[in-house]
């Protein structure tokens, strides 16, 4: 698993398999939560407005989102 965060757009992407996969289908799971699939296999999840959505759930502030490693550690 690999987690990246883009502070310019406040979006986090969780790669469930770090090997490059071809996205064949994208589906909005919930408002701001987007799932990417290769066939029927879930390969990644994008979270829009990540600092707002996950910050409160993980006990983080927007400033904490400068390092994706800290986020990945708390998600596991």
3D architecture notes:
The protein has 76 residues and is an alpha+beta fold. It is built from two helices and five strands; from the N terminus they run E-E-E-E-E-H-H. The longest helix is centred in the C-terminal third of the chain and has 9 residues, at 50-58.
Quick description:
This protein is α+β, with helices and mostly antiparallel strands and 76 residues long. It is built from two helices and five strands.
List keywords for this structure.
five-stranded antiparallel beta sheet, 22% helix, globular, disordered C terminus
Structural class, please? Answer: alpha+beta
Overall pLDDT score: 78
Distance between the termini: 9 Å
Strand order, biggest sheet? 1-2-5-4-3
Helix content: 10-25%
| Order of secondary-structure elements | EEEEEHH
Note the overall shape.
globular
Q: Any low-confidence stretches, pLDDT <50, length ≥5?
A: 64-76
Largest sheet data? 5 strands, antiparallel
Beta-strand percentage range: 35-45%
Instruction: Find the count of extended strands (DSSP E, 2+ residues).
Output: 5
Number of continuous helical runs? 2
Question: Measured on Cα atoms, how large is the radius of gyration?
Answer: 12 Å
Describe the protein's topology.
Blueprint: E1 2-6, E2 11-15, E3 25-30, E4 33-38, E5 41-48, H1 50-58, H2 68-75
Antiparallel strand pairs: 1-2, 2-5, 3-4, 4-5
């Amino acid at each position: 698993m690999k987690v990246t965060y883009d502070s310019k757009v406040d979006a986090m992407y969780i790669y469930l398999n770090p090997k490059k996969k071809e996205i064949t289908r994208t589906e909005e799971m919930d408002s701001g939560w987007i799932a990417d699939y290769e066939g029927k296999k879930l390969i990644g999840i994008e979270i829009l407005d990540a600092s707002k959505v996950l910050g409160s759930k993980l006990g983080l502030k927007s400033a904490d989102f400068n390092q994706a490693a800290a986020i990945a550690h708390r998600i596991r």
